[in-house]
Amino acid sequence: MINWNNIIANLSNGIDILPDPKNWNLNTKGYQEILDLWIKAEYNFASIKWTNYYPDTHYSKDVETYYANELNVKPLRSWISSIAPGYTAPWHWDVDDNEDDYVAQGELVRYSIFIQDGKPGQVFMIENQSYYSQPAGTIVKWNNYKSWHAGANAGLTPKYMFHLIGVVDT
Amino acid sequence: MSNYIGNCSHVLDWNNFLSNLDQGITKFGDPWKWVNPLSDPNFPITPDMKSYVNSTVERLGHNFNYSSTLWHIYRPNEHFANEVVSALSTHLNITPTMANAYRVEPGCNCPIHIDPQDKTDNRWNKLKRYTWQINQSSIGQVLIIGNHALHMLTPCDMYEWDSVDELHAATNCGPDTAYYFLIEGYLND
Known about the structure:
By secondary structure, chain A is α+β, with helices and mostly antiparallel strands. Chain A contains four helices and ten strands.
């Protein structure tokens, strides 16, 4: 069993994701396309920020191992994401520099796990589905690991989630 | 929480309604700016407004990113015809006390809050409130009411609030501007 409150309380400074192309590997297909969509929509860039935390760097990799076993997945990538109050993660799919390597290992599956009880103003969306006021421990399996998704925090406290991408462990 | 009560797409020509909206009243920044009479002379002032704003600020805390706070309000007689309110009130069988349209653009938030209430009015607990998205929805447009998030709404599907003093918010992390309508009033006998 994972003590998420303890993990969240001990997270060190994560990696802020900001709409600054200087920090994006624009050679990887997808980044520029997404950035262009946000610009075309005249998206309020002042609202864009989320923070990612990675196993072995910001928290124990035991978390990834635990959920990989629970979900019968060979893990390829996992992370905790956080959106602070007043920030958004605009609609996007997750571009990954290593995607081709992942795909070569089998059919990719993706899970998102709500690691806190949902609080007012915190919302997560995958395609047409929204998730709000989810109890801690809720696990969502994505229909497609590349689905469009978004998140926002119009609420009072940071919103944390855990994400796992892998291949089915046969 | 909110309950679906029907669709009002036939009550008005909503495309015409939207095409005639102008900039509206801009709400931005912290809650003190939301109620500033210089930017919004018709903001409904209720008893103890100072306490109301203080409690809203305290609820949001000191870390909220107010650079994302931006929405626009449209009011009857000011931005659209009173006949709109009349038609909707007839449809809902209410005597209206308040009606507004709202616009939330991509990347903008209306932070979680409770609207100012005049609970000294002895009919306050009989007020009903209804809301809906006017235009076609797309990913990222969310209206939060109580413990429920309304996303990918069918245009003009109407939702009745459980209570007029529920916590609510709107956020738009999608590509398109969202337009909403809200009306409040007393049910007619």
